[in-house]
Every structure is written in C-alpha cells, then in structure tokens.
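Incident log, support desk, overnight shift.

02:14 A customer reports that sequence design results differ from what the structure should imply. Their input is reproduced verbatim below. On-call engineer (initials T.W.) acknowledged and began investigating.
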C-alpha cells in the first residue's frame, strides 16, 4: 500500500504524542499557528498511519490537530502512511523531529522583512524569542 492524501475526520485520529521539550512551541508561535489555521486553513497535512479501517495514529501534526479541534474543524488534510509498527512510527517521528530545524533569528528577520515589504509595511507580527532589531525598520 502506498502513501495517500485524504481528508480525515478528527474523531478518527488518535493522538498520544508527548511533545519533546525542544519542539514545544512558544505561546506566540502557537498563537500565530492558531491565527493562520483560523484564517487560511491547514496548509501542511498531518502525517498519520492507519491503525485499522477508519482509525489513525498521528505521527506529526499534534498541534495542528489540537488547534483544528479547538476551532471546530472536523476534517483535516492528512498524508496517510500504511500500517506501521510502533517501532516504525517512533523511528519515523525521531527522524522527522531531528532533521527539521527551527528558523534561526536571522531566518526570521529575513522572512519578516520580505513579508513586511510585500504588505507595504502593514505587518504587525513581532518575534517573541528573537529581537527583530533592524528588521522592523527595513
């Protein structure tokens, strides 16, 4: 069985991931994700594996699922992997989390300047954990 994309009811997705401290979002990051999902929907599908027919286990996307549920979104886009053992799921999760690097402060500044320029200086988002310094005046 190959990977497939589909929208799945949130009630059919089993969570259970305990966030690793390194990947816990700050309050402002979680709030920005909340606003993004509220305003635009979920852009990046959740990664799930099928446990049995119409029952899935989440591998990546716990926060997106939580926010969608809070917003009353009852179907979410998912990349569905074929049935996997717990060992396979945790190995994949480890691989994902240890190869995805968060944006550096410089990356944030670059993205901030670009978006701010595109919005003709109407951007009001600031970084909580990263002083944007000259990026605010760019």
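02:41 Re-run completed on a clean worker. Output:
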């Amino acid at each position: 069985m190959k990977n497939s994309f589909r929208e799945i009811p949130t009630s059919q997705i089993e969570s259970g991931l305990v966030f690793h401290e390194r990947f816990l979002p700050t309050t402002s990051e979680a709030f920005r994700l909340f606003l993004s999902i509220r305003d635009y929907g979920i852009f990046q599908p959740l990664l799930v594996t099928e446990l049995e027919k119409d029952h899935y286990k989440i591998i990546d996307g716990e926060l997106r699922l939580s926010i969608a549920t809070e917003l009353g979104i009852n179907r979410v886009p998912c990349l569905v992997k074929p049935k996997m053992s717990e060992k396979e799921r945790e190995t994949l999760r480890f691989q994902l989390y240890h190869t995805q690097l968060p944006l550096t402060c410089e990356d944030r500044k670059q993205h901030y300047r670009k978006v701010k320029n595109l919005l003709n200086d109407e951007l009001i988002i600031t970084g909580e954990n990263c002083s944007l310094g000259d990026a605010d005046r760019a």
